[in-house]
Design a protein that fits this description.
three-stranded mixed β-sheet
Length: 555
């Protein structure tokens, strides 16, 4: 009996010691956890974050079907608690992240009871990761017939933030869909406007630096097409699902590629002109260039004469459309100096009677008619001279070809005139020969745009002169009335003089590429008339020398 009592006492002592040890160990663990939570500024996590009931909210339903069909969406809709739960889950997510990061590496890892403390912290992470809703089915009699838990994670809350339609009524959802479609439509439009503006900016910045100046007009044409196809078309598309978007995007891409190709080719040509290879060709052709220097200078003088008679092309900013939303930036386009923007009615009348409307819009001052008539007469002569000179220049190119080898195809294909011009050969710009008047009609909304040009060829210039003369008084008309230097008359005088210069005796039979001109023996400025007995054939050198002498005499 005594032995049993002793054994029982020993067991009690062991149990007491074990309890004391367990208490001490638990105290060490709790102290360690408190230190960790203090380190993380989470001392009150048990009170403020973790619910001792193991759930955050309790919901009662009235049927078993309602219990099993209950979802987080219904919970949010019925309780209008989404914003509150969202804030709570965000806070908990942040706390869980801090706890998780702490467990990866910290200064407490070597402390006694750290492993148990770590398990405790992991349990915190698991408990605070979700917002827990207890759904209970209680009968009218107060009996608990079942319960389920809804675990709403921060990820699920983020999903609902990204898709607010989950919590909307049908009416709210329809309204949201319309707003989203409208927003997507506007975003689509502006994305295309941005692409159009990018092309315009690139064309504007590249245009003035082009080596091949004729390509500037190609850029104008491409940007014109871009405006015509996009400015109003983009705004008119009413649905984000419309097939028109694909067509517009393909068209914009096509224009973009063409514009970039022009600039790319121009850069290649520029690099070639700066190369040693081209320098050698230029040096080889220097003697030929020197022999034609005076002729080249004379042709350039003639080209400048036409520019002075008719004006130079100017640059203005234009979108070519009324863009009421100011989405499209302006584009610098070269235009003829004689451009009239008119109403629809005037445009139709001008198409039917172009010369009359040229006078109305571009020759408003009747007192200037005599001077303008004289300039137009001279314009006919200068244009004819340059057209003949252009044929001769094409023949001169053949002389250069014997010195030219291994010129890249892209140079001659895209800039033949520029190539020969850099070798020293006179080049006549087609834009100088293609003088024109232009009429433009643009509707008020910019939806329609029409234009037509009246080329100043010999026939139209002659008609313009005749109509200007018809508006002069009889006295003024008597002073101005004289025959025009027509192509027929020019050819007749050359044939009469056997295609020979009446001053130096040089002829096309001796020099096939000789440029012959028709000269007024008594200058028009001194009262000379355009008739056979006052006309003679001169080569360009003699005509140039005569002009210089007359200028000297006037001085």
């Amino acid at each position: 009996m005594e032995y049993i009592l002793i054994l029982a006492a020993v067991v009690v002592i062991i149990i007491i010691v074990a309890l004391i040890i367990a208490f001490i160990i638990d105290s060490i663990r709790k102290k360690l956890i408190r230190e960790i939570l203090k380190e993380l500024s989470l001392e009150r996590i048990e009170e403020e974050v973790l619910n001792p009931k193991e759930y955050d909210e309790r919901v009662v339903v009235k049927s078993r079907q309602a219990l099993y069909n209950y979802t987080d969406v219904k919970f949010f809709k019925d309780n209008d608690s989404f914003d509150r739960v969202r804030v709570i889950t965000e806070v908990r997510k942040s706390i869980a992240s801090r706890l998780y990061s702490f467990l990866q590496k910290n200064d407490f890892e070597k402390r006694v009871q750290y492993k148990k403390a770590k398990r405790q912290i992991n349990s915190y992470i698991q408990r605070i990761y979700n917002y827990r809703v207890l759904v209970v089915y209680i009968t009218p009699a107060g009996n608990n017939r079942g319960e389920i838990y809804l675990n709403i994670s921060s990820k699920r809350v983020d999903e609902m933030v990204a898709h607010p339609e989950f919590l909307m009524t049908k009416g709210e959802l329809n309204k949201l869909i319309k707003e989203q479609e409208k927003s997507a439509l506007e975003a689509k439009k502006h994305s295309l406007y941005d692409r159009v503006n990018s092309i315009i900016d690139f064309a504007n910045s590249s245009k003035d630096t082009l080596i091949v100046k004729s390509q500037a007009e190609t850029l104008d044409v491409l940007v014109q097409k871009l405006f015509d196809k996009t400015v109003n078309s983009i705004q008119k598309v009413s649905k984000i699902s419309s097939d028109e978007w694909v067509m517009l995007e393909n068209f914009i891409t096509s224009i973009d590629n063409q514009v970039k190709e022009i600039v790319k080719n121009d850069k290649m040509i520029s690099d070639y002109y700066a190369s040693e290879e081209f320098s050698k060709i230029k040096e080889t052709c220097s003697l030929l260039t020197q022999s034609q220097r005076e002729f080249n200078e004379y042709i350039n003088e003639k080209a400048q004469s036409i520019i002075q008679l008719f004006g130079t092309r100017t640059v203005r900013n234009e979108t070519l459309h009324e863009d009421v939303y100011n989405y499209i930036r302006t584009y610098k386009k070269s235009i003829t100096p004689f451009t009239a923007e008119v109403s629809s009615a005037v445009f139709g009348s001008a198409e039917n009677s172009p010369i009359s409307y040229i006078i109305k819009y571009f020759y408003p001052n009747k007192s200037q008619y005599p001077v303008q008539i004289e300039k137009l007469r001279l314009l006919i002569e200068e244009l004819e001279t340059l057209k003949e000179a252009k044929i001769i220049i094409d023949n001169y190119k053949k002389d250069y070809n014997q010195y030219i080898q291994n010129v890249p195809d892209y140079v001659l294909k895209n800039d033949e005139d520029g190539f020969y011009s850099r070798l020293g050969l006179a080049i006549i710009d087609e834009s100088v020969l293609n003088v024109e008047y232009k009429f433009i009609y643009t509707s008020d909304g910019g939806m329609a745009r029409r234009s037509f040009t009246v080329p100043m060829n010999e026939e139209n210039i002659t008609e313009l002169i005749l109509q200007l003369e018809s508006k002069l008084s009889l006295e003024a008309l008597a002073k101005e009335q004289r025959a025009l230097m027509t192509t027929k008359l020019r050819n007749h005088i050359k044939e009469r003089d056997n295609y020979t210069c009446c001053q130096c005796g040089n002829s096309v039979s001796a020099e096939p590429n000789l440029l012959l001109e028709i000269d007024h023996i008594v200058p028009v400025s001194k009262g000379g008339l355009t008739q056979e007995d006052n006309l003679q054939t001169l080569c360009w050198k003699c005509n140039r020398n005569k002009g210089a002498k007359l200028l000297f005499q006037q001085d």
